[in-house]
Amino acid sequence: METTRELGARLYDLLKSVRLIKQRRADDRPSVPLGLVGMLTQIEQLAAGAHARELAEHTGLDPSTVSRAVASLVAHGLVERRADPTDRRASCLAVTPAGRAALADTYGWYGELLDRALADWTPDEVAALCSALGRFTRDLGSALGGRADAASAPADNDNLEAAR
């Protein structure tokens, strides 16, 4: 029980740090709206021509949440909707060149931050942390009864691991 409380406290601290990181990134690099780096990353990682429906399934988010996020990314010129050649009623999502540039800049920013934070860590310590976090997110997803891969997906959170 005490170990569980300690883990809960460390997770709280981690979430607080992630919120602070996201806010600082948004202040330093406003090219991607706060909270949308993860969504932009997911669109980039899905095959070209992904539909919002697929994005919602992949991230485990409600379709209305995905729709609002996509609308914001489109409004900022980071994503574009293209006509689906197989279904004229549907549109496909694609990251624009401006979106790719914003992601590259954001990943660079995260990479520099993580390099500073982990400067005193050995490569083995960093690898152990990555491995433990990967296992933890998969197991947490399983414990929640969802898809194990959905729990480890960045969803609408900024993807710190992608920056490494």
UniProtKB/TrEMBL annotation:
The keyword Transcription applies. Keywords: DNA-binding, Transcription, Transcription regulation. SMART domains: HTH_MARR. Transmembrane segments: none annotated. Residues 1-138 form the HTH marR-type domain. The keyword Transcription applies. Pfam families: MarR_2 (PF12802). It comes from the Bacteria. InterPro entries: ArsR-like_HTH, HTH_MarR-typ, MarR/SlyA-like, Tscrpt_reg_MarR-type_CS, WH-like_DNA-bd_sf, WH_DNA-bd_sf. This is MarR family transcriptional regulator. It comes from Micromonospora harpali.
